[in-house]
Fold:
Amino acid sequence: MTIYEADWVCPISSYPIRNGKLAVDNGKIVPLPLGEGGRAREARARQGEALIKGAPGEGRNLVTFPGCAIIPGFVNAHSHLELTILRGFLEDLSFTDWVPKLTRTKYQHLTRDELLASASLGCVEMIRAGVTCLGEVMDLGTAWQAMRQFGLQGIAYQEVFGPAESQADEAIADLQKKIDAYRPAQTDTLRLGVSPHAPYTVSPKLFQAVNRFAEQESLRMTTHIAESEDEGMFVRWSAGVFAKRWAERGIALVPAGCSPLAYLNGLGLLRPEMLLVHAINLEDTDFDLLRSKQPALVHCPKSNAKLAHGVARMPEIRDTGITIGLGTDSVASNNVVDMFEEMRAAIFQQRARTKQLDAINAESAFRMATLGGAECLGLSKLLGSLDPGKRADFVVIDLTDPAVQPVYDPITAMVYSASRHNVRATFIGGREMRVDSKDLIEECAAIAERLMGLHKK
Ligand SMILES: [Zn+2]
Structure:
């Protein structure tokens, strides 16, 4: 058993503990042994008495992190590791140009090995940023390989595309093949899911077929929804840029005459196993749908803002009682994987929009970035907070940085002042992850060099 102690232990499921300890055995968090703690220690700390220190008990190691806080590993509930190589490649394009350029580059200019290097670089970035669990949306499956190699937990949702109804059967056969191939490597906390991409790339028939497939195979689902106004026009009126592209390809269009969320509901996809991504453009009646169907939602405030999509109505969404997590989305639309920045963006955007202080507060943002994300992925019984029985996926945050000092309250100090640069160590399953990324960085730089010519096209 190893006992980790720090100035603060923040379980997230309960209040931060001053001079706290975390006991880890066999990759799991275990109750503190007698004499080490729990309530008695908390009481001592509150009364300002000195903490009893000394040699650890028999068979126990003691690791101390002075000036640090121990928090659960962040759950980044929406990412696309495979797109890491496209950071900075699609800057300031309109969304309707961003999507096809991304797709074209992925399929026509990158090999599978290059996409594996891209996903691997993404994994290194996540670990260094204190992320231990992902809601990963992958297309070519290299993310599944990279997540396993780097020890990241979470759900890897296999993406599905197919705007023409005639593509649906083939898309499902292909999906079945991929899921069958990946499934043997599943664990309790690294699982597969499925992701019909979005209404403007997936036919209604395919949406329903993927939904049936997910139910049959007991797989969770995620989909991008209500992200852009172009998508809204496409769904309601079969109008706008996306509709034009379908028409050019000779694909039949049938206006749904409703909001994207109502459209998903009409297809039977709104249920608790569905994780919605974005949900920016919601209509008033959509909130009733959220309330009654209880899908989960991952909020991506920085990506939403960078792509000029707007600000999701988070307090109203929260009031429907649905589960909410926080995600960075890909670095092709965010650039910086930093869950501290993401928490700040979530809070500041809502306060700016609503002029209400309690729109989102620091505690609820921190919960969204950890336990809330775990709930979104259906993994909260096994990870997401520092409770005995859960996986020892935790992160040590250095609070001695002058930019973070002084610390009156660890949660508000971290949410409002810290950054990924304050991540001192990331533990996954009780093991500190130390990754040497030199070769990987060189490999990715060489790929980028090759893509350079396409950059401005
Ligand atoms: Zn996405």
Notes: Residues 2-72+386-432 form a domain with the Urease, subunit C; domain 1 fold (CATH 2.30.40.10).
